Amino acid sequence: MSEEHSTPVDFRVAQVTHVLHDYGLATSAVVLREVEGARREISIPVALPDATTIYQAWHHLVGRRPTSNELMALVLQEVHADVIASRIVRIDAGIYFAELDLMTTRGRRVFDCRPSDAIAVALRQPVPAPLLIAEDVLALD
Question: Does position 85 have pLDDT exceeding 90, yes or no?
Fold first, then answer.
């Protein structure tokens, strides 16, 4: 579980605009664009399986067997936990860090996670949870 932010962080609402894979370079990325304002974008590198699961979640595709993020979404629904938001909180040495903000029957909980997991779980909610990007992260890209 991550700690609460000690200083206020300004977040911008974003949406998935592309899930990309370059077969020549064997690299994948998910592109997020802020919804309002300058509409800046960030491209977050992800592994091919993560790009695939984000694409499937984004397009509401369900496989014959649940993926990890589908399972997580089902478990959260079953235990009555709501995803408040998925946040991209910082970038350090080229690595993006995210958190999943939940409201549970025991109160609010914030969990450190990979951006790919945060994005996929947010997209798998019955009502998609907001994807938020820290202003500092948008300013760097």
Answer: yes
